[in-house]
Amino acid sequence: MTPTPYLIFQGTCREAMEIYADVFGGEVGMMMRADAAEGFEVAPAKSGWIMHGEVRFAGGLLMGSDDVMGDTPAMAGCSVMMSLPTVEDGARAFARLAEDGHVEMEYQPTFWSPGFGTLRDRYGINWMITTDAPLT
Predict the structure, then answer these.
(1) Which of 42, 99, 126, 131 has the most CB atoms around its CB within 10 Å?
(2) How many CA atoms within 13 Å lie on the side-chain side of 76?
(3) What is the pLDDT of residues 66-94, one digit of tens each?
(4) How far is the C-alpha of 18 from the C-alpha of 87, rounded, in Å?
């Protein structure tokens, strides 16, 4: 059994998932618009919002949707942890996610990893980026 993060956005799900696919070398899968779902009523202001979207990575899946119903609590108490093969890959992903976001801890060597950092991206999603590379 593998947990799959399910992220909630405020009208930016499609854009965010496309960026995450680019940053992590994944492919955007299903992008189901809420206003295209038969029998599902959507407020005009939320026309085009995503009811369910996904990005597939080597060995992983990231899912998300826009908050179509408007009652999803903030996700402040969780982060998505991504481990990349090299320190350089981690640094590149961290820099991309940090664009127009807020860095909590710069990507840097730590006592447990040669590359680790935390940030909140422009969409309000918290990330922990690390590397599979061994400590030297």
Answers:
(1) 131
(2) 2
(3) 999 888 877 778 999 999 999 999 999 99
(4) 23
Residues 19 and 61 in one domain: yes
Question: If you write DSSP's letter for every residue of 22-42 in order, what string do you get?
Answer: HHHT-EEEEEEEGGGSTT---
Cβ contact 23:44 at 8 Å: no
Q: Which of 44, 66, 88 is the last residue of a domain?
A: 66
Q: Which amino acid is at 20?
A: Y
Pairing of strands 116-120, 126-131: antiparallel
CATH number at residue 121: 3.10.180.10
Number of domains, the chain: 2
Measure Cα distances from 55 to 22, 71, 98, 121, 131 in Å.
Answer: 10, 24, 19, 17, 20
User: Which tens digit of pLDDT belongs to each residue from 9-32?
Assistant: 999 999 999 999 999 999 999 999
Say if CB 119 and CB 106 are below 8 A apart: no
Closest CA to 79 of 21, 122, 117, 128: 128
pTM for this structure? Answer: 0.91
